Amino acid sequence: MKSESLLQKKRLASAIALAFGVGHAMTLHAQTAGKEEISTVTVTAQGRKENILKIPYNISSLSGQDLEEKNITDQTEMLRSVAGASIVDRGNRNSGVISGVTMRGLNVNGSALGDFQTSAVPTVSTYVNNTPLFANFLIKDVDRVEVLRGPQGTLYGSGSLGGTVRYITRRPELNTYSAKIDSSISRTNGSEGTNYTADGVFNVPLGELFALRLAAGKVNNAGVIDYPNVYVLDSKGAPVAPNGILDKTASYRSVKDADTVKIDYARLSLLAKPNTDFQALFTYQTQTDDVGGRRQPTIGNNGYGVPYGQYENGSVQLEPSTRDVKLAALEMDLDLGFATLSSGTSHYDQKGSSLSENTGFYAKNAWLANYYYNYPRPMAQAVRSYGDKAFVQEIRLVSKKGNSVDYIVGAYYQNQDLNAAQFSYLRGLKAWSDVAQPKAGVTSDNDFVFQRAQNFKERALFGELTWNLSPALRVTGGMRSFKTDFNNDSILGSGVIAPYNATTHTVIEQNDSGNLYKGNISWDFADKQMLYMTASQGYRRAGANAVPLTGNFAENKAWQTFKPDTNTNVELGIKGASGSMRYNVSLFHIDWKNIQIDTTTPNWGFYVAQNGGKASSQGLEAELSGRFGEGWRYTLSYAYVDAKLDEDVRRADNPAVITAKAGTVLPGTAKNTLSASLEHTMTFDNGLYWTNRINAYYQGSTENAISSSALVKKTWDSFSQWGLSSTLMGGKWSATFFVKNLTNNAGITGGFLEASMGTSPSQNYYGNGSKVLISQPRTIGFSANYNF
To answer: How many domains does the chain have?
Structure first.
């Protein structure tokens, strides 16, 4: 242990030396830099417009224009350029169920999660303008995306453990008529179809005091994954028995490119600015998703020993999903002279549903043989739904800069309703048992019912106070005081055989309150060069699980609730700019207590969260960007993250059973990630611009889960991905040729393993429910836009 501690200290010392070395190099470079200056990046992370170099903590800003030029419309591709951020790429299916975003390694959930709404909320909060909502909207017509690392409970109404991602959409422009249309067409490796998108943005002034902006469009992507062994179903949705119901023979069909994606979105914004002191912005945004299946192939064989192909999924049924989300928000700002008073009022409503293949899960638990009489054509189907709606009110008072004391104070209220349901079926079981086992007492194909309704209310006061001790030295203190109320109402029912039917109705109420603190000191040690240090606390709310405590499917009471988890984040950073170069380097160490782990109960596999012990994460984040020569531009980001358990994780109902040992690497985050891009723009005498880009991403190996169980334990290999694009731009138009994932690397970030979801011919299951989460295969396309 001493040698390990010494090694960590050496790494930390080297990282500190690197950080100060970069700062020193930037200072020297500033003395000899040419006339070209890098453009100012403005953010509103602290409630006011500020140069990103004046923000005394680690923040990244991605401009909407850059995202558009690079044809980036989803968060997975976007966040791969942000140091310290990692994401499990689940594709579009159920993309709004749970967030796959992790900051600084703060994740203990298995990477294969995503089909259902988990008990524990994400460690990273997501904002759409001023509304805390994870909706995974398409990234369209955004002004910028701000990524803040570390707990942010003293700055924002919605607190977080790991960080905050803010999507700031473009606002209507007064006195300006404009319109833009764009579209793209592409082909993806493995698909027999064509992808296309169509979008339009219209800005219309309504007199001198009002303006309207409309952004709308659609995505229609052909699928990639084939389902070669899908049951042919009868009129009741059960597998067809071609030789009679008692015969074992089934009938199969093959479905090509099953994971189609159809998305429609629209955003309407109305800006009112009656005078220079007041403005109001109303926004209504909606998106609907219709996805035909998983972008998740099976690695392995079917029940006959035949291997699946590169883009084949072994499910015996199709697995579509749908989603609909609506967001309405009113944001108002009043300039009081000494400060700006802001109000954000919003309401959102998100709901979705999906069908999932569970037959492999039943088979690997031997349930088909032990509880379902080895039914000859098993098709276990999970019909899942989820909902998330809330009313949110946030008020802020933000002082003007330039005084000896700056402040941000705010009040926050959220009333959130969450609901989730799962109805499981073994399709065709009753019809078969009525003939084969008439005395068995099978009453229905529906063998499991789960319904959960939760209400969460939070009230919080938060703020930060900054003392400007000198023009170059500042000290900030922050605090958040909160109170939460939580109610869980759940119903569970299990069993298809009459004597074993069991239904449990559980109501649980909880409340909590507390205070969180933040301290920061920053020093401008040279022109456009800042050194800062921050210590901040994070908090994630408690919750309840839906598990039966009585009957044949009872679980231990220890699984019924879980406590909040908290962390303390300490970071040392240096940032600045010189000439045409900007940099940001930070070191961090996080202590995480009472970690919330989404898992399953040991008896019957009910989805639950439990508290573990302690975990920690430490590392380095570095970002560099700039310009050189004639028309060259570059970006570079690197992160080293060492995230692991500090204590054994013990089963909630039996602490003697260790499910993960201290020292286990936390899942979903690689120790090393690297992202880089290089572009060059040529200017022609006729007013045309030609820009060529290349980008690369590398991710080290990751863990599938923290559990030591062979059912979920797996190390996924490191991978790299490359992209190319070439854009020709005129005065009002542009055209781009692009290639994504040039080398067609699978880029696996998670999976359901053979041991937990695989085939079982002895139980008449000849499909295979195991699968891996892959990146989008190589996609080659062309896009164009025109501005009116």
So the answer is: 1
Q: Does residue 268 lie in a domain region?
A: yes
DSSP three-state, residue 441: coil
Asked if the structure places residue 25 within a domain, the reply is no
Structural domain span for residue 228: 51-346+365-381+432-441+538-787
The token duo for 36 is: 């070209």
| Residue 487 within any structural domain of the chain | no
Residues of the chain by 3-state class (helix, strand, coil), percent to 5:
10, 55, 35
DSSP H helices in 252-403: 359-364, 367-371
Cβ(200)–Cβ(181) below 8 Å = yes
Q: Which of 90, 97, 95, 120 is nearest to 108 (CA)?
A: 120
Q: Band of the pLDDT at 157, cuts 50, 70, 90?
A: confident
Which residues, 6+ apart, have CB-to-CB distance to 541 below 8 Å? 121, 456, 458, 484, 486, 512, 564
Which tens digit of pLDDT belongs to each residue from 691-729?
A: 999 999 999 999 999 988 899 999 999 999 999 999 999
Q: What is the CATH number of the domain that holds 188?
A: 2.40.170
Which sign, positive or negative, has the C-alpha torsion 329, 90, 586, 125? positive
Q: Note whether residue 163 is domain-resident.
A: yes
Residue 82: C-alpha distances to residues 42, 457, 587, 592 (Å): 17, 32, 15, 23
The CA angle 709-715-719, to the nearest 5 degrees, is 160
Distance CA 630, CA 784 (A): 26
pLDDT band at 508 (very low <50, low <70, confident <90, very high): confident
pLDDT tens digits for range 464-481: 999 999 999 999 999 999
What is the rounded CA–CA span in Å between residue 536 and residue 464? 12
